[in-house]
Each structure stands twice: as C-alpha cells, then as structure tokens.
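User: Could you check the structure of this?
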Amino acid sequence: MSDFLLNRFDYSALPERPRWRWPNGARLALWVAPNIEHYEYLPEKIRVRDPWPRLPHPDILGYGLRDYGNRVGVWRLMELFDQFKIRATVSLSMSVLDMYPEIADAMQKRSWEFMAHGLYNTRYHWGLPEADERAAIEECQAIHRRVAGSELKGWFSPAASNTLRTPDLVAGAGLQYLCDLYHDDQPTRLNVQSGKLYSLPYSMEINDTNAWRRGQEAQAFCMKMRDEFDTLYAEGQERAMVMNIALHPFIMGQPHRIAYLREAFEYMLSHDGVWCATGSEIIDAFQSQPTGSN
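Assistant: Sure, the predicted structure tokens are below.
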C-alpha cells in the first residue's frame, strides 16, 4: 500500500504552532453542525454491517425514532438557532433536498451551508471500490449544484464511513474540507494527489449521538459542552481554536432535551470573542493565515 495513502498529514505539536487570530480578533470559532439525515426503511445489507441490526425487519423502532427528527425535531432546532442567529453547517444526507422539500426550503431561507454526508445514512462507503466511491461523491455534488446552484465545499462520509482514498476523491471533486478525521482543535492541511484539502475539526465527543449511546442525558451532555467551551475559550486567548457541536434532530430535538441545549448556547454566546462560523468560513480564514496557506 502506498505510503502516501497512509501519511495524510504531518504531526504538529500544538505549543509549537504559529499563533494567529480569527477574524475581528475572535478567540474561538464555534461551528454548529446539525446532522439532517435520511435512513432508508428497508436498506440492503451493505458489505460490513446491517444498518438496522434489530430483527426481523423492518426495524420500526429505529426507523421511527430517526423519522421523528425530520418530522418534528429539526423544526425545534431551527427555532432555537434562529433565536441565537446561528447559521448552521448541515451534515446533510443529500437525498433530503429532494425527499423533504419543506426542510430544504427552510434551510435555504436561513442560508445554511450544506456539507455532504453521503446520499443516505444507510449507504456506507467502507469497502467501496474507487469508482463507486467517486461516483457517490459526484452524485452528491450534482445534487448540490442543481438545488443550491453552487459547488459543495465540505464532506463528511455517511455514518462516519470512509476509505483510504476518500481525501483524494473529495479533493478531486473540488471540495474544500473534510470532516472524517477527529484529531485536532484547529484545521489541518491534508496531503492529497491534486488540489487543496483541509481537515476541519468535527467532534465525536461533543456529539449527541455518542452521548445518547453512552446513556448520557441532555443535562450532562450540555454541561460537557460548557466544559469543552471553557477550556477552548481560555486557550483561545493564546491561539485561535475551533469548537464543533454535532447535533441530531431526533436526539436533541426531543421536547425533554431542547431546553438544556438552549441553556448551553446562552452560556457560550454570552462571551465576547466567539465567532459563529460555517465550515467554509473557518477554512477560508485559516487559509488566509501564513500557517494555513502553505
């Protein structure tokens, strides 16, 4: 296997990095990523994992919970984000744009940024042949061009699946940033065969799915958000940092959880020097720094 496929980025010790600021001297770039997804009712078993492990199929419980997110939960999140003037970067199953026109219209009216999260969240990219993965990425790009009238800038593989070739294929499709790596609190330049591609910090810790799977309820999850914020905000006095909040409408859009999310945003956004940014805005600002353009 080519060393190039394995050596996607260089090691960089945080204390030794150049120090720089976000626009207007902000200490922390806060980017909020709701995952608005579609899970197929009866998907095929794809290579390595059954999307619905509960038998017999269909898994009404699993499907119904996720369907709740698109029917109800997403509208609660939109109302909350509107209150705080948060422009989200949507980790989006691109099929949503055609399947749920009401959601598509509401997102576009808010000028939310779309980051492709595959076509469906039940079609994994693990083990895909190169040609098939390239075609899947291009299909997502084509949907975005048709619906949004512009090029996709961000990619997060469906269900956090990916291959060793994903960075090259994403860069080759003209995208700007990738969220398949979870290794830093600042953007990272990636080594790709052609073009430029950056890793944008996406969190599996400040992520309601993993909190939910661990049995951690909303109050504890939102305290975790505050604790993460306090550390990164303090460190941001010395160097620009990124905090991602990954949410799912079927989890945090539940009526018994939404109030805790509101409290967390009230706390974080009461601080000066917090820049609510989209994924592409963060990458553009990073590239403008000497350390980001090399």
